[in-house]
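Thread: quick sanity check before group meeting

JM: Hey all, I'm pulling together slides for Thursday and realized we never actually wrote out the predicted structure for the chain we discussed last week. Dropping the sequence here so it's in one place. If anyone has concerns about the input, flag it before I start.
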Amino acid sequence: MSNAIAIGDLTVNRLGLGAMRVIDNDDIWGEPKDRANSLKVLRRAVELGVNFFDTAESYGPQTNETLIAEALYPYPKGFVVATKCGLARPSPDRWDADCRPAKLRQDLEGSLKRLRLERIDLYQLHTVDPKVPLEVSVGALADMQREGKVRHIGLSNVTVKQLERARGIAPIVSVQNRYSFADRGSESVLQHCEKNGIAFLPWYPLGDGSALRLSKVKKLSERLKASPAQVAIAWLLKKSPVMLPIPGTGNLAHLEENVAAATLQLSREDFAELG
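JM (edit): ok, ran it. Output follows.
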C-alpha cells in the first residue's frame, strides 16, 4: 500500500482529517465548546503527518474554516485544504441544498477569505441540488477554476451518472461519498473512480460504530494488537488505491489512534477474513 495519493496534480498522505468534528457539538453549529482543544487537535494532526484537511463552508457555518486558518496559517509546505460549497444552514437542524451559481460564488469568496488563501486547492460541490441542473453548478465551479481561484474540482454525494455528467463539463479529480466497512452503498461509484483515476474520499468512514463491534473485526484487532477503529481504517486503505479516508474527531487520543492506522498493514488473508 502506497502511503501517498494523487488528487489531480497534488500529492498528499493517504490518511486525511475530516475537520468537521473539531466543532464539538452535535449540530456542527456555532463555536466549539472548547476552542483551545479544537485548535490543538488541528495542529496535532499536522504534527502527526496529516497534510490533507477536508472542511466545508457549511460547518459552523463558516466556523470550521476560520479555526483551520487560526490553527495553521501560514500553512506548512505541501499542506492541502479541501473545502465544499452548496449547502445552506438557516438553522442548526437544516442542511439545505443550494447550488445556484450566485450561492457557490458567495461560498467561494467567503472560504478564500476565512482560509486566507488566494486559491482553493480542491473545491467540492457538497451535494446535487434538485432545483439546479448539475451542469449549471459544475459550470460555475469551472468558471472559478478558469479565474484561478480554484485549482481542482471535486464532487460529493453523487451517483456514477451524475459524476459522468459533471465530467462532461470539467475535469473532476475527487468524489466524497458516504462509505465504510459497514456501508458500501457507493461501491459502484468507488469502482468508477478507480477505473478513472479519481480520488475517493469516504465520509463517515467508521460509520455509526456498529461495525467495530462485529466479532470478526474485534478478533482481527486483537490479533494485530490494534483497535477496531484502526482495523476499519486499514480495511479502507487496503480496499482501493484511490481511497483517501478522512476520519474526523475532536479528541486528541482518537486522532492519534486514527492516524496510526495508516501504518497498519492488512495481509490478503486479513482482508479476506473481514470480507
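AS: nice. The mean pLDDT is 97. Residues 4-210+241-251 form a domain with the TIM Barrel fold (CATH 3.20.20.100).
JM: adding both to the slides.
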